[in-house]
């Protein structure tokens, strides 16, 4: 829901920008009422560093307050997935393996995830593909007229990482993981 800023692919980039160019996170409009004037409203801390030391946690996320309706919203960089704990790169790996025909069992084994998680992500991708593909194709005609899930995502992930595709869908007001 317009929560993602289409920049800052790594946590290190995000941590630098949130100090040096905090204005790059400010939304142009309030996501609740559409008003055009939002004030910076501090930060909240989020566990976003999944590396073994997790030394970057808690990662600050910028918050904004609407001068009209008084509600707050926050903006995430590309490197933080809004609603899943796992990193985008791992999700992209899992989905790519499935797209290339690996079995659910092998994908779970290779990635160290449970079969339930792999099954849930895969089902989500297949169920959402008609809507996602329609919107992404209207923005990127080069994604072509591929009709099935496999060829669409192979074309899409060859053009952009999963996090960027999701950020474009977020801009179209879809709820992304
Ligand atoms: Zn508002």
From TrEMBL:
- The chain positions of domain DUF6431 read 30-121
Q: Which domain of life is it from?
A: Bacteria
Q: What protein name applies here?
A: DUF6431 domain-containing protein
